[in-house]
């Protein structure tokens, strides 16, 4: 049972992060069905690739991003449960998950492939970073001390 307003707000931030993680996991599928940013990005980086090879690369990215997204969703659910139920290890666990999630997001955003460009188009890379904002808020709320009322009040 969450005890402080900070913990309740942190859980709210964590559920926001969960929603953002779900959206970030779905985004590449929406792209594949509509704008084809990922396929166009791969085509631009590898102009000699045929359509079959581009489709294969897109599928590989979809699998990879789906696995990362599913692990992220599980991480959000697990840490929100830990905070909600008042586990002593919740704050360090949330912090570790934040570092891991931010690291994964930055990897997707910044890692360059053999073409010299980033593996993901910037829009999908930044979409993958969005859950980290909620994670940062959750960590800040969990580690901040509740304000004490002024003694004269």
Write up this protein.
This protein has 153 residues and is mainly α. Helix content is 75%, strand content 0%. It contains 5 helices and no strands. It has helices spanning 5-33, 37-45, 51-84, 90-110, 122-143. The relative contact order is 0.18. The model has no long low-confidence stretch (mean pLDDT 94).
Q: What are the SSEs and their pairings?
A:
Layout (H helix, E strand, L loop, with lengths): L4 H29 L3 H9 L5 H34 L5 H21 L11 H22 L10
Helix pairs in contact: 1-3, 1-5, 2-3, 3-4, 4-5
What is the succession of H and E elements?
A: HHHHH
If you compute it from the alpha carbons, what radius of gyration comes out, rounded to the nearest whole angstrom?
Answer: 19 Å
Portion in strands = under 5%
SS content category: mainly alpha
Shape category: elongated
Main sheet properties: none
Intertermini distance: 29 Å
Q: What's the helical proportion of residues?
A: over 70%
Spans where pLDDT lies below 50 across 5 or more residues: none
Mean pLDDT: 94
- The number of E-state strands comes to 0
* Total of DSSP H or I helical runs spanning 4+ residues: 5
Structural key phrases:
0% strand, 153 residues, 75% helix, elongated, mainly alpha
Q: In summary, what is this structure?
A:
The protein has 153 residues and is mainly alpha-helical. The chain is 75% helix and 0% strand.
